[in-house]
Amino acid sequence: MVSSQSRIGIIGAGTSGAYLAILLIEKGFQVTLFEKSPQPRTDGCGILIVQAGMKALHQGNPQISQKIINSGDAVKLFEFRNLRGGVINSEPVTYEENELPGMLVHRKAILEALLGELPPECIHFNAELASIAQTEHSAIAHFKDGTKWEGDLLIGADGIVSKVRQFIVPGVELFYLGDIVWRGIVEDHSFCPEGNFFVYVRGRGIYANFFHIGGGRTHWGFFIEKERTESEIGKLQPNNITIPPQELAKLPEDARKVIESTPVENIVCRFSYDIDPLPKIYDGSVILIGDAAHAKSSTRARGMTSGWEDGLSLAQHLVSSASIAEALENFQTERLPIVHEYQRTSREMSLKIGRR
User: Fold this and answer.
1) Is residue 136 packed enough to be buried (19+ CB in 10 Å), middle (13-18) or exposed (0-12)?
2) Cα separation of 314 and 51, whole Å?
3) How many other CB atoms are there within 10 angstroms of residue 3's CB atom?
4) By the 8 A CB rule, do 210 and 191 touch?
5) pTM of the prediction?
6) Residue 62: phi, psi to the nearest 5?
7) How open is the CA angle 341-343-344, to the nearest 5 degrees?
């Protein structure tokens, strides 16, 4: 196996980077996790974790998967509705005995469960990456505060606008999927029961979903089809983040009131983006995982899950391979076809189903 004395740096302390750090530390590697924010970024909204994601967590660390089960709701029902509120299709979800469930949970609870398994001394905050260099035997990360790290392997888990990706595959542009998306969390004891996931199928230029995430809270997402203005191209957030009342009025009254009752501070607004499949995800001793490697539309709910699958696979290859170079090549050979399929099918669904 690769020497457990190997020094491994991870850029990005989100769900992919934190999980991989846990796995590598358990294997004995010398891991340093870098995060540009001054503290853990536990903000965010609700997440649907499909069963594959729960399995990837459980296989690597059963304690984390149990914490997440305790923090949210197991999926019980998917219900598809039209914009008049009528039910188009209802799909109950059942599980075999001892089978891991799909989960509906707050991102904050997920990240807290992950960070709680990490030694605090391995995380460096206020560490914003400036540049990367390589020698024959090492990778070097330079940070904006003038510090640097040098080690045997550098991993980019720094999300859709990854700086590490620019080192491996320069010039990757974000692909606009055509929607402005608002997401929020609100206290709710009547509209969305525990374990329920409601989808208002796309029509009249909008789409929405609602799901219960435990603790008397409901997550909602509201999407409107809109072209960006010239000044908005390349930006993550539109110039105007107010939900247009005429678009919100297309939802049934009960669903609309859930959104209208959400405190402004609990709402985030973004353009919807993914990236084209990359031809490679490593160069020398620098590699990508998660959204940095394969950011995708949320339509198949494979974003967080695929990052955990990446982490589990990379940790296994580092343990079973004779060298880091062999581990990275084996990892890329295994994962690229899988994540390319996630990206392709997620984008196809996002761009075709129900659009005007």
Assistant:
1) exposed
2) 20
3) 13
4) yes
5) 0.96
6) -60, -30
7) 65
Cβ proximity of 288 and 156 under 8 Å = yes
**How far is 287 from 164, CA to CA, in rounded Å?**
8
- Show Cβ contacts of residue 82 under 8 Å, excluding neighbours closer than 6 positions: 88, 200, 201, 203
CA distance 311 to 289: 7
**Contacts for 90-97: CB closer than 8 Å, 24+ residues apart:** 93/195
Q: Look up residue 299 and give its two tokens.
A: 């339509």
Give the span between the Cα atoms of 175 and 193, in whole angstroms: 35
Tokens for 182, please give them: 């608002």
Instruction: List pLDDT tens digits, range 72-127.
Output: 999 999 999 999 999 999 999 999 999 999 999 999 999 999 999 999 999 999 99
Asked if residue 1 has pLDDT above 90, the reply is no
